[in-house]
Specification:
Elements: E1 7-10, H1 17-26, E2 31-35, E3 47-51, H2 60-64, E4 69-72, H3 79-96, E5 100-106, H4 115-128, E6 134-139, H5 143-151, E7 158-162, E8 165-166, H6 171-182, E9 188-189, E10 199-200, H7 201-211, E11 217-221, H8 226-232, H9 248-254
Parallel strand pairs: 1-2, 1-4, 2-3, 4-5, 5-6, 6-9, 7-11
Antiparallel strand pairs: 8-10
Helix pairs in contact: 1-6, 3-4, 7-9
Length: 256
């Protein structure tokens, strides 16, 4: 990697992406964040902003100019959007001579027949077949995602929760690994990462309710279908890769 070239981060204002940006800036890298909106008011000397729309294929090649590494954290939260964005990004990366694409994915996407997950598998395969150098990191669900599920129910008298086990991890810890991969040569598929504990979602809901001082009934939900059965079977877990350190309870204590 050319030390003077910017590292491009898509989704650099998102849950994990903004941590990746901070980590890279913190160790002296020039960083270019790709966003659909102009954020050039940020005046940090080592930070650039590039306006581009990955899904519409607008401005991507310009955003990649002069770079040789991309960390792809952007997500559209739909299968179609994710696949279209990835296809456009990887095509532009080949034209721009990008040497290394780092991709964040999800543990179990190839074992859980859930629409959003199948899109993630397709993105992984697109990258593997792209001819680009790549590193693919799969992670379990972020603490932020789990807390957000419960926060959106704050006005309800109960907390609805899927009747599954979850292994949440701090997005900041995943970002540490993504930043490390971005500064190294392409590594292909790397060992996945999971949080320190595998916890019943009902217990996570109780922990969340206690953190906000709420007395709520916890209402576990079971859904029909193969996708939920795969979650129930633990295909979203990686017990042998429980490398995260910060627990969900600690995350709730430390968050603003």
């Amino acid at each position: 990697m050319n030390a003077t070239s910017p590292i491009v981060v898509t989704g650099g204002t998102g849950t994990v992406g903004h941590h990746v940006v901070e980590r890279l800036l913190g160790v002296g890298h020039q960083v270019r964040v790709v966003s659909r909106h102009d954020r050039s008011g940020d005046t940090r000397s080592a930070l650039e902003w590039a306006v581009a729309d990955l899904v519409r294929d607008d401005g991507i090649e310009r955003a990649l100019t002069g770079a040789d590494t991309v960390v792809h954290c952007a997500t559209g939260y739909s299968r179609r959007a994710d696949v279209r964005a990835a296809r456009h990004l990887f095509s532009a990366a080949r034209v721009a001579g990008i040497e290394h694409v780092v991709l964040i994915s999800i543990v179990g996407v190839d074992r859980i027949p859930f629409g959003y997950y199948t899109g993630k598998v397709e993105v992984e395969h697109l990258l593997e077949r792209s001819g680009l150098g790549y590193s693919i990191l799969r992670s379990t669900q972020f603490h932020e995602l789990v807390a957000g599920l419960f926060t959106r129910q704050r006005r309800l008298p109960v907390l609805l929760t899927p009747d599954i086990r979850i292994q949440p991890i701090a997005a900041a810890e995943v970002a540490d690994e993504l930043a490390r991969l971005a500064a190294a040569p392409p590594a292909g598929r790397v060992p996945e990462v999971g949080g320190p504990d595998i916890i019943d979602a009902r217990d996570l809901a109780r922990t969340y309710a206690a953190s906000i001082g709420a007395r709520k009934r916890i209402w576990p939900i079971r859904l029909p279908g193969r996708a939920f059965a795969a979650f129930r079977a633990g295909n979203n877990l990686t017990p042998e890769r429980a490398v995260g350190v910060r627990t969900f309870r600690e995350y709730l204590t430390l968050r603003p």
